[in-house]
Amino acid sequence: MHILIYGATSAIAHSIAKEYAIEKVHTFTLVGRSETRLNACKQELHVYGAVDIQTMLLDFSSIDDMKNVFHRCVQQRGGIDMAIVAQGSLTNQDKASYDMNYLAEEFSLNALSFIILSQIIVNHFNQHGSGILVGIGSVAGERGRKGNYAYGAAKSAVSTFLSGLRHANKNENIHIMTVKPGFVTTPMTLEMPQSFLFVKPEFVAKEIKRGVEQGIEQMYIPSFWRFIMMIIRSIPEALFKKMNI
Ligand SMILES: NC(=O)c1ccc[n+]([C@@H]2O[C@H](COP(=O)([O-])OP(=O)(O)OC[C@H]3O[C@@H](n4cnc5c(N)ncnc54)[C@H](OP(=O)(O)O)[C@@H]3O)[C@@H](O)[C@H]2O)c1
Ligand 1: does its nearest atom lie under 6 Å from the Cβ of 11? Predict the structure, then answer.
């Protein structure tokens, strides 16, 4: 299987790559913005058993670059069996409320780059008749909260877009999975106070691999978030506004 990973330097994506690397049969294309960090991931995946790994640099703010890098990848590797879209940034909500350029850049990375790449990938799967897309959303996309509504709105866009892609997709050999992790201990959450709700990226990776194997379409990780978010979504807006969550 040829696995293409956007945001391949992310702790979650790298853990997923390691899960597949140990099987020693897959080829990888790792896409990111930093050659140094991509090469570090590549070296580690070699240690885990992967042999054929290519890295590609991408400017996630450029639609042309997204299209060009994808087409170069297809030309060089002959097709994609599984794509993982994992780039993301935990938007600083305070800054995003007064710095509109920052707000736009963050939304562009967390939502626009995500949905454009997803559409490009699924178009390719449709041409080839099969493929697996794993998109990493978040429980933060389920309801706007005062502490992170810029990030949450972007993740909500990702989730709605992937849901629409699934609805539009008539080919049962194309699997589109939306992953909604809760809190994961990664560089993204380093500054947040850790709690019992945090899980490790290795756990998330194992769950995602299980989801792929079982053809799951929407996955909360850990699964208890499904119930937490069901309750949070059901709180009336008038009451929610008064809550300090
Ligand atoms: N950690 C959590 O609690 C959590 C929860 C739910 C969902 N998620 C989602 O899971 C995915 C992976 O996150 P993670 O927790 O593994 O975080 P991470 O280790 O901090 O990885 C973030 C990834 O996004 C890339 N990135 C950040 N800003 C970028 C920019 N401006 N341009 C291009 N690439 C950029 C990083 O590239 P560099 O290595 O070059 O910086 C890295 O590959 C994200 O989509 C995130 O929203 C995370």
Answer: yes
How confident is the model over 8-22, as a mean pLDDT? 98
pLDDT digits (tens, 9 = 90+) for 94-108: 999 999 999 999 999
Confirm or reject: Cβ of 109 under 6 Å from ligand 1.
yes
Is the minimum distance from the CB of 29 to ligand 1 under 6 angstroms? no
CA 63–ligand 1 middle distance (angstroms): 19
Q: What is residue 120's DSSP assignment?
A: H
The phi and psi torsions of 138 (rounded to 5 degrees) equal -170, 155
pLDDT, residue 245, reads 87
CA of 170 from ligand 1 middle (Å) equals 31
**Ranges of H-type helices in 129-223:** 149-168, 201-214
CATH 3.40.50.720 fits domain 2-240 = yes
Residue 10: which of 69, 66, 77, 60 has the closest Cα?
60
**pTM, entire model:** 0.97
The domain spans of the chain are 2-240
92: pLDDT strictly greater than 90: yes
The reply to whether ligand 1 has any atom less than 6 angstroms from the CB of 141 is no
Question: Residue 61 and residue 65: Cα distance in Å, rounded?
Answer: 8
Ligand 1 centroid–CA 188 distance in Å is: 6
**Index of the ligand 1 atom closest to the CA of residue 13:** 16
- Omega of the bond leading into 181 within 30 degrees of 0 (cis): no
